[in-house]
């Protein structure tokens, strides 16, 4: 939902468990940039072996890991995923891999189980960026 919202400015609430690769042109600081976004639902990722995940990590230049502020389990798996990404990407070079943690569903604050502070602290401890957003809003 967050990827579609970013690309189209529309919110669609329900998705299946399919992965998609989106391409999108974006102008940043007067330069045209072509983004390729490989959007993978967490449920599919968990069902696959490590070699599929490794292939995606090698393909990507940066990572946005999204969790639901209403789902503790989606937050709790982030440290392991980030360690896996860093081991795979930073092990090859000395460059820091850009990773951003995004807490989604900020509009559902009445169902919140993960605080903003927890998200910020996790990102800080893992040297990642952090945002909290609402794909719906």
What tags apply to this protein structure?
alpha/beta, Rossmann fold, two-stranded antiparallel ribbon, hydrolase, small monomeric GTPase
Draw up the topology in text.
Layout: H1 2-8, E1 20-28, E2 31-39, H2 42-47, H3 50-59, E3 63-68, H4 72-76, H5 78-90, E4 99-104, H6 116-125, E5 129-132
Parallel strand pairs: 3-4, 4-5
Antiparallel strand pairs: 1-2
Walkthrough of the structure:
With 137 residues, the protein is an alpha/beta fold. 37% of the residues lie in helices and 25% in strands. It has one domain: 3-Layer(aba) Sandwich (Rossmann fold), CATH 3.40.50. The protein is built from 6 helices and 5 strands. The protein has a 3-stranded parallel β-sheet with strand order 3-4-5. Helix 6 links the parallel strand 4 (99-104) and strand 5. The mean pLDDT is 86. GO terms for molecular function: G protein activity; GTP binding.
Structural class: alpha/beta
At CATH level 3, the topology is Rossmann fold
Quote the average pLDDT: 86
Radius of gyration: 15 Å
Low-confidence stretches: none
Could you give a short account of the major beta sheet?
3 strands, parallel
The CATH superfamily label reads P-loop containing nucleotide triphosphate hydrolases
Helix-strand pattern: HEEHHEHHEHE
CATH architecture descriptor name: 3-Layer(aba) Sandwich
Shape: globular
Give the total of domains: 1
Name the CATH class. Alpha Beta
Count up the helices.
6
How large is the share of residues in beta strands?
15-25%
Q: Order of strands across the widest beta sheet?
A: 3-4-5
Oligomer: single chain
* Helix content, binned percent: 25-40%
State the end-to-end CA separation. 11 Å
Number of strands: 5
